[in-house]
Design brief:
Length: about 450
């Protein structure tokens, strides 16, 4: 009875916060304290101890460091450099924006990749590229980069798995996300690559400028976006400043240190490394550091912190042990895994992907503990299913792409096609990942 009440409070608080458009973590944290004190006989200190400080250090350190890179113009320089490299080869532009958005998404907060949305959609209009193809190129790039060990979804997935005692290789997680999203990009090329807009090929700088700096809002969490200069030449690459060169060197050093420490058998703490490199850049240019303070993704910290704290209370009450017993009686662990992935995809299409990652991974633990499915494969699949539907027009990512479409007549079509695409992935994604990851992992484990 107590377990049912605690789980019911979790569901109700989650739903009410979602409906009222309030950060779910902020609602769940006091709820965790109330349930822990009232039903679980826990002390307040024990409840608060469930707050994931290690994930907090990672999120704050990473978003602060890359916030400085946004503030001092380094990210904008990378955007300009990529466009200059592609030149007039139109068919390569969506692929270029896939790489560019994925790279920026890997630099901390996935929604940071949305800085490319206004430019990408403007370039698509100018070069008569189907806006749906460009939107999907950036959306798949964002999803792929989000699972890098330096980015939000990768941090959360790896962090929650580690908390549960499940080992997941960062390379496997990121590699799976990259391959899956490249396949989706290839499908997008097949479906939309041959269609051309009827708009003139003449440059339309005024329309492109009008779509730069479109305000974005994220339900339940803050975004890490940068203001783009409307008058910037979309194909021109300027020389990086001395500060930008040092920032690029710091980004490279972060990557090298992470790889070297891992190869030496250590566990690189990316959050601590980012704090150190961020502090060095802050001393170099204090003004950029002050701007970066506003880019720290506190919304995600609160979201994940509140959910995981409540999950700790549920764990103390034995809720997940009970679910494990029920799962054992089902006798179809693969079906249960498939359903968990489908729920992750469906809910994430309308709500917070971050919240789905933090909430559903613990629900998968009974299946994993029972030996029914391999832990690494199921957790990777849940994370990927929650991310690949983010191009839904009902989410921040899809809404940004629709709003950034230059031709207003194309926007209803974009809404319709993005809805079709994301809802298709609610079905296709879980099936594909069950077949490609979970089932082989179960057979060969």
């Amino acid at each position: 009875m107590v377990q049912s009440i605690a789980f019911g409070v979790f569901v109700i608080a989650f739903a009410v916060a979602a409906i009222r458009n309030v950060n779910i973590g902020i609602v769940l944290f006091p709820a965790a304290c109330a349930v822990g004190l009232g039903l679980a006989d826990m002390t307040l200190e024990d409840v608060i101890a469930g707050f994931p400080l290690n994930i907090l250090v990672l999120l704050v350190g990473v978003t602060y460091f890359f916030g400085i890179a946004h503030s001092n113009g380094t990210i904008q320089w990378l955007v300009d450099a990529a466009l200059a490299g592609v030149g007039e080869r139109d068919r390569l532009l969506p692929l270029a924006f896939f790489v560019l958005t994925g790279t920026i998404s890997a630099m901390g907060a996935p929604l940071g990749g949305l800085v490319t949305a206004p430019i990408g959609m403007s370039v698509a209009h100018e070069r008569r590229i189907d806006p749906m193809l460009m939107a999907l190129a950036m959306g798949t790039g964002l999803s792929a980069g989000a699972f890098a060990p330096t980015s939000l979804f990768g941090i959360i997935t790896l962090g929650t798995a580690k908390e549960a005692g499940i080992a997941i290789s960062p390379a496997v997680l990121f590699g799976s996300a990259l391959v899956l999203n490249l396949v989706f990009l290839a499908v997008a090329y097949v479906l939309f690559g041959k269609q051309r807009q009827q708009a003139s090929r003449e440059p339309q700088r005024e329309k492109a400028a009008a779509n730069v700096g479109i305000p974005l809002s994220e339900y339940g969490q803050s975004t890490l976006t940068a203001e783009l200069e409307p008058e910037a030449d979309l194909g021109k690459r300027s020389r990086p400043t001395a500060v930008q060169l040092l920032t690029l060197a710091a980004i490279g050093l972060l990557i090298v240190l992470t790889i070297v420490i891992a190869l030496l058998g250590g566990e690189p703490d990316i959050g601590v490394l980012c704090f150190g490199l961020g502090a060095a850049l802050a001393l170099l240019e204090p003004s950029a550091a002050k701007k970066a303070m506003t880019r720290i993704d506190w919304g995600s910290v609160l979201l994940v912190g509140g959910i995981i704290t409540y999950v700790g209370v549920l764990s103390e009450l034995g809720v997940f042990d009970s679910l494990g017993e029920h799962a054992a009686h089902v006798g179809a662990p693969l079906l249960a895994a498939l359903l968990l992935c489908a729920v992750a995809a469906l809910v994430s299409a309308f709500a917070s992907t971050t919240g789905m990652l933090a909430a559903l991974v613990p629900l998968a633990l009974p299946l994993i503990a029972d030996g029914g499915v391999p832990g690494w494969a199921l957790i990777c699949s849940i994370g990927l299913c929650a991310s690949i539907v983010d191009v839904s027009p009902f989410s921040t990512v899809g809404a940004a792409f629709t709003a950034s479409t230059v031709d207003e007549a194309q926007r209803p079509r974009m809404t319709r096609l993005l809805t079709w695409w994301s809802m298709s992935l609610v079905v296709i994604g879980p099936i594909a990942l069950t077949v490609l990851l979970i089932l082989p992992g179960k057979i060969f484990s």
